[in-house]
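Rotation project, supervised by the postdoc (A.L.). Task for the rotation student: set up a whole-complex structure prediction and record inputs and outputs verbatim in this book. Inputs entered:
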Amino acid sequence: KAGVTQTPRYLIKTRGQQVTLSCSPISGHRSVSWYQQTPGQGLQFLFEYFSETQRNKGNFPGRFSGRQFSNSRSEMNVSTLELGDSALYLCASSFKGVGNEQFFGPGTRLTVL
Amino acid sequence: AQSVAQPEDQVNVAEGNPLTVKCTYSVSGNPYLFWYVQYPNRGLQFLLKYITGDNLVKGSYGFEAEFNKSQTSFHLKKPSALVSDSALYFCAVRDGGSSNTGKLIFGQGTTLQVKP
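Outputs recorded:
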């Protein structure tokens, strides 16, 4: 089985711009979660989607949004980028989410200048 | 509040020696516990999990972890370390605040350095 894929792998944006990151889960997995990884804050949960419904949301401002499509692919969007949004954004998929291990993609490295 | 603590920022061990990476947790309800490893510029790789059952869990690459309910710990162990085990290790617990979520709460990570 192919693993979790994320596109793009690297992204450079300027403050005020918006960005969309994409995640394709492992075939058959219906749960997709997003995490932000920074040196200072570590790994922080952004969202969780299951069957196109947001099941859980982390403590991030409304500039961060996401969605899941009927084929389980997911996107996350960050509007009005700030310097502090520079991070590695990781997508993870699992069969159902609860109790199942999550399989992570390689991440998208976002740099905001 | 749910939380995970990894008390050591870095663990140094000589190749061939046993290694332990420590993790303690605080969660409401039954804990679902996980260990992940991250190599430079890579995503996280799943090593093992504890949901229920035997307190000693065996995982990938020769790693195992011991669940201790009374001490609320889930330490990662390996009998004989390899240089290639050098990486960043994360302990995680499922958020027990809701029964219908796979949200993980991660520790801050422990860098494992295995020297030849």
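Student's summary: Chain A touches chain B through 26 residues (CB under 8 Å).
Supervisor addendum: Chain A has a mean pLDDT of 94.
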